[in-house]
Design brief:
alpha+beta; five-stranded antiparallel β-sheet
Length: 158
């Protein structure tokens, strides 16, 4: 007589059903996405001062060191491009000191550059049109202290 044991539905160590049933590849994919999201949450936000022209370079290198292990290389390059353009615009056209922040906003990485000039940035140069092309959204908000914050959101996965 052939005795086969039906193990029933799979359960984890705590008796809960698994997050993913099916192939190991599917389970690893879900786990990787969850770990990547947790790392991004743990690492962000990043902030830096913008007082001198050299600070634009420092902002880019600080963001690179901070994010390179937790976002894809394409997302990192987009964040660096946007942060660099917005910081350079603030340095060229606004009143400093300023502040750069990079943080998670929903399913996006958000870059904000705050300066002391209330005027909206010009869209006639190459910086803002480039930010518009790379970002999924961008805009300008008053900062509540007579200046403005120019922000851009980039998709976390590209």
């Amino acid at each position: 007589m052939d005795h086969q044991h039906d193990p029933g539905p799979p359960f984890d160590f705590f008796g809960r059903p698994p997050l993913v049933s099916g192939s190991v590849t599917a389970a690893v994919t879900v786990l990787h996405a969850e770990v990547e999201q947790a790392l991004t949450l743990a690492v962000l936000p990043w902030e830096g001062d913008l007082r001198h022209w050299n600070d634009v370079r420092s902002v880019r290198s600080g963001i690179r060191r901070h994010l390179e292990a937790v976002v894809t290389s394409q997302v990192l390059e987009d964040v660096l491009l946007v942060a660099g353009e917005l910081a350079a615009n603030a340095h060229r056209h606004a009143t400093l000191p300023g502040r750069v922040r990079v943080f998670r906003h929903g399913c996006a990485v958000r870059v904000e550059v705050t300066d002391r000039d209330p005027a909206c940035p010009s869209t006639g140069g190459r910086g803002i049109p480039l930010v518009d092309r790379v970002s999924r959204a961008w805009g300008v908000l008053p900062d509540g202290e007579g200046g403005k914050t120019v922000w851009a959101e980039l998709s976390e996965h590209r």
